[in-house]
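Q: Can someone sanity-check these two? First one:
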Amino acid sequence: MIHYAFTKLVVGDLESCAAFYAQTFGLVEQTRVTDEIGGRRIDEILFVPTGEGGATFALLTFGDAPAPGGAIPGFVTDDIDAVFEQGVAAGGTVFQAPTDMPAYGHRVGFLADPEGRVIEVVQALDRP
């Protein structure tokens, strides 16, 4: 099973954009993440979905250079390795191989579509 789960809007000024989306659309901050994508530092803010079962909206900034205007769609699956195999077979490439992120309870990887757009794929880690 795989389903569309989130969009990450790439912004230059994380804090001012977060304030804008919160004040304009009533979004509520859920969590913040600092990590790396493809060796580049990122900071992101994930907001609570606006409806039950709804997709998550997130803002993301790259620490080494602002890159406003892009977006990273996200998909959640129960078999990330199969999704990566299917993506490569369909003409995509592995941007960053899936990696366990126990602190967040997920295994996360990034595919690039045939035109180079980055797509995040997430699988929940099994909890003991």
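And here is the second, same format, sequence then tokens:
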Amino acid sequence: MRNNMPVTSNEYVLKETDSIVSKTDLKGIITYVNDDFKRISGFSEAELLGQPQNIVRHPDMPVEAFADFWNCLKAGRPWTGLVKNRCKNGDYYWVEANATPLRENGQVVGYLSVRGKPSRSDVESAGRAYQLFRDGRAGNLKIQCGQVIKSSLLGKLNVFKSMSVKSRLAGIIAILALMLLGIGVLGLNGLSKANDSLRTVYEDRTVPLEQLAKIMGSLMANQVAINNALLFPNEENVNRQLEHIAENKKIIDKNWDAYMATYLTPEEKILAGEFAKVRGAFVNEALLPAAAALRHRDFSAAKNIVK
């Protein structure tokens, strides 16, 4: 792993209006950077273009985070997580990074990354968690899709989310068949209870996790689509990004309705209510106005909404 040194203990704290944007090719070589990237990192455009994205990697970042980052992107999925970056002079800055594959004619041709200011509580939590990975004390913690989670039976069951419907059905049938062989001695009543338990785990936990993952990915994809349209404001690209935004909103609405129809604990209901309120504000005050501005090719208004 690239080890950029030296480092200082000086932190640059991003402003609410800072938006760091970059593009790379499939090998992670930088092909585009915006002004905020240059200003905050301290590197010039000439120093950044043609260099690997890890030119700003901070040695405090664990290798597990970047392994997860590339696993997600190479699988065609977006990635969202907290990253500690190094400035040219050794100072550091934390970002909430959103990265997604860039496609042309159905083929992935590179990656787009948009970074903003994270909350201080998220920075502190990420810093503590990343320290555990660096010290070899992470235990049953792992980094998945940018989030630090505990390895568990539920996490293992969540492999269903990357499988096709046909494969999921085949997997469930196989599990039930193994259960039938393993607990047949318990009688039909015991088998029925076991099947009910498995169905509860799958329907009340694994399925909602998949729905939330789709919502998270589509929310991030919409933010990326808006930035993509502003970066490359040609007619074809703007129309394509507007189509992506409309389609992602449908995916979010559909999965949110389905998620709310599942069993929710009292704590989950509270969190769901908070999310619905925040998302409503985001859609009505940011996403729809920005999309309308793009539709009318008022790029100045769209940029102001993004900021």
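A (reply): Looked at the second one. The mean pLDDT is 82. The radius of gyration is 22 Å.
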